[in-house]
Amino acid sequence: MIRFATFILVLFATVVSVVAQSDRMLDHANRIDSCVQTRLDLLDKEVRPQIDDYTFCRRVYLDTIGRIPTLDELEAFVADNRSNKREHLILSLLESKGYQSHWFNYWADLLRVKYVGDKLHHPGNYAQWIKEALRLNKPYDRMVHELINATGPLYKPGNGATGFYAREPMPLDHLANSMKTFLGLSIECAQCHDHPFDEWTQKDFYKLAAFSSKTHLRVDPTPDLEKDYAADREILKNKSFDEWIVYRESLRVKHAAIHGNGTGYMRLPHDYQYGDGEPFEAVEAAVLFGEMPKLSYKLAKDKIDASGKRNLGPPINSRESFADWVVSSDNPLFTKSIVNRLWHQVMGTELVGPLGNLSPDGMGTHPELTAELIEIMIESDYDLKKFLGAIFNSKTYQRRAISLGQNSDEYVFVAPVVRRISAEAIVDSFLSLKTATPDQFVATEFHWDGFTNFYEKSQEMGVKDFVNYSIKGPGRGAFQRREEVAAKRRNGDLGPTHLWRVSCYGHVDGSHEVAMLLGKSDRELIDGANREPNIPQILYLMNGQLEQEISTQPLAYIYQKLSEADSPDQRMDILWKAILGRMPKDSERELASNQPEDLIWALLNSNEFRFTK
Q1: How far is residue 279's CA from residue 269's CA, in Å, rounded to a whole number?
Q2: pTM score
Q3: Which residues in the chain come in under a pLDDT of 70?
Q4: 254 with 458: CB under 8 angstroms?
Q5: How far apart are CA 324 and CA 321, in angstroms?
Q6: What is the DSSP string of 175-239?
Q7: How far apart are CA 340 and CA 355, in angstroms?
Q8: Are 258 and 151 in contact (CB under 8 A)?
Q9: In 10 A of CB 20, how many CB atoms?
Q10: What are the residue ranges spanned by the domains of the chain?
């Protein structure tokens, strides 16, 4: 009886929490609509019509979980008679594994998760950190703070945030990329000279860099530990290159780490030419705008200046103070930048300005809407699901999409913009035709790779254990393959790769060549994805493996559905709903006599399939 009463209380509390969350989303959605309506009234413009259930279902699936709905999912939603079924669908999708998959692609692109030579040997732990942050729905400000302030072993399971610094360990380049990523601020020009088009000076840049001075990636053991390994390292180097390279690489997996937490001082460059400083002069940390965080210096500037050109002082944890400043709700760019990014991702156009080139004062062409969305993000405690839920629940999001064309200057954020879906969404949408459960192999827990697996093993290994491990070689490739095989056994059955979503592919699984062909980011640059169609993409979709895996496979989910049809018209209904997310138009009914495989080919190669509207 007590257990049953406890269950009822927990269930009631859960229901109350969900209802409260839904109410907040709807209130925020209404505030968005009110801002948009006020602007429409001011400009004497008409409201665009609301979309029907078919269009909404396809749109919200693509924007929330990155694929089209399966036929069963679409029909279940359309048949739902509840007046608030759209609200329920949004909440369901935001809590699904598909959300984690789709938004991992977004964050992995923005944070440039990839292998980088002798810096980030394996990005798996970095990727797993992002996936775990999405599973936990970690608030965005906390995510960013952890990424900026990450320290310690690179391949320690759960410490993958260190991958953000390892991805770009050159201190000044790392700073410029961090500012563009999290504040939408382009200051890289000031690294070498005063900014030609903005107020930032080279000295400003170096003052900002002072927060993270002496932070660095070291892949080899620190000097105090290296003395234990040096003799064996030399013996193996003279004996066998294969054994020596395994010894070196295995030690690096254990010892690669981010060191240093900032000293609050930086030296001006050797060629500094401006009148406000001298080459090699020490400068104290300072922010570009907003409130300066308090730093507890251990040495005064005059002592640093007198102590030699290379001395930057002792650590004072100023990097954490820098992270505090970046994520502060009082920072005029932090919240505005993520609001601008998410609006662009969902609605198809920038709210404030270019994603990587904002200004502290700029509020875009609709400043009232920008201010409202900033307030909504802060009230949501940087919970990205709540913020996205507010947009998805708004009438503004649920209106007929607009094609900007030649009149883009007249756009006033009245509805989403017609745009091509991402490369990953195209590939993942084929899964909705291949299987009834496209998200079944999206991970719900940490996945091991060769590096994290060996890191854990290495914690019990002494100096001689590394020697014994290395002489079992042969070579670096075998070392990595051996550990990857062990990691795969540890992960268990991950399902057949042809049923994986793009987000499931890791470093050792390849870069998913089809998604790359269709415009997936190579993660060299921030915002590096390409949604512009080209001839190779079109030719591949017309003749490539993706379409053939649907049209030539009688066991595919779409063919199972077609087998239930009793007439050409019913087959046509199934195909149009499954691929385009709508019923056929009367003008299209004459196509019903064509073979299913021909119709599948035609629909998959239509612009309507590749675009969201």
Answers
A1: 6
A2: 0.94
A3: 1-21, 406-410, 472-476
A4: yes
A5: 5
A6: HHHHHHHHH----GGGGTS--SSSS--HHHHHHHHGGGTT-EEE-SPPHHHHHHHHHHHHHHHHH
A7: 7
A8: yes
A9: 10
A10: 2-101+366-420, 220-255+448-493
